[in-house]
Amino acid sequence: MKTQNENNVNVPAHAHYIGVDVAKATLDAHRFPQNTSKQFTNTPEGWKQFLQWIKDEPPTLVLCEATGGYEKNFVITLADADVPFRVVNPARVRDFAKSHGILAKTDTLDAKVLAKFAAERRLEPQKLQDETQRQLKELAGWRRQLVKAKTRHRNQLEHASNKMVIKGTKLLIKQIEQQIAKVEAELNQLIDNDPQLSTLNDILLSIPGIGQEVARTLIVELPDLGSGDPAKLCSLAGVVPFNCDSGLFRGKRRIYGGRAALRTVLYMAALSAVKCVKADNVFRQLYLRITATKPHKVGIVAVMHKMIIIAHSMVKNNEKWQNKMFKKITEN
Hints:
Low-confidence stretches: none
Radius of gyration: 24 Å
CATH superfamily of the largest domain: Ribonuclease H-like superfamily/Ribonuclease H
CATH class of the largest domain: Alpha Beta
Number of helices: 13
CATH architecture of the largest domain: 2-Layer Sandwich
Order of helices and strands: EEEEEHEHEHHHHHHHEEEEHHHH
Helix content: 55-70%
Number of strands: 11
Number of domains: 3
Shape: globular
Mean pLDDT: 87
Strand order of the largest sheet: 5-4-3-6-7
Structural class: alpha+beta
CATH topology of the largest domain: Nucleotidyltransferase, domain 5
């Protein structure tokens, strides 16, 4: 049985959704379709009050946006209390609001939009990553920032002429390199200490072209590798070409979106894999077959796509790289 509300959204009987706009200091919550709102502080006391607010009428789903980490502890609190939740990309919600003609943006209004978005799309709850995965993700993000800082200082060093600037910049680069080494050691230690992740890491490292950094990134950015939908995994990596057609016009297919950090390391892995001239190198064979008629980057993207499909199959079957296993895969 479904009920029709004033917003013309069919909601199953007894189902209701809560949108939460997360800010640094506050949580603006809105129930849908009841259309009631309440504000809480984004503190342990505020999270406790929120759980008390929903206690008598548990929601079908609590939806909030990824806000650069301000939502992290609130979401952990929801998971610990067995409250169904989901965190979404803010761009999806903003596009949804625009499609409904909602151009204004306030915390209260954003909470309403989030609740309506959850109800209209019937979003499913997500699982919270375990502590090891959360630590890996945070450390991997910190490593990327350090690498960017190192690159920036190196570029500045090329144009520096003042002795003090040169000396100081070299010192900064050395300190950053030391930090990167410590972070990588911690990442490797976390993976080695987890039997499941250690096995996954060994499987990924057995694939031609995949080194430690690529394997770590796959572990962090694609936790569903081996269990999820391979098509969705490729989409998350941003290696699925999208059509660009209109009427009689047929544009070039282009990859779009996805997780930039994952796509970057996969690109480097693909470049490495296609350079290997061994006769049984399936990635090079695929690359040469495609680039015989299409541009270089099309071949590289195809190799990136194939890497994910093969990695997914290997992890699913808990087997290391055995080239003969994948002859049928590469022929498809």
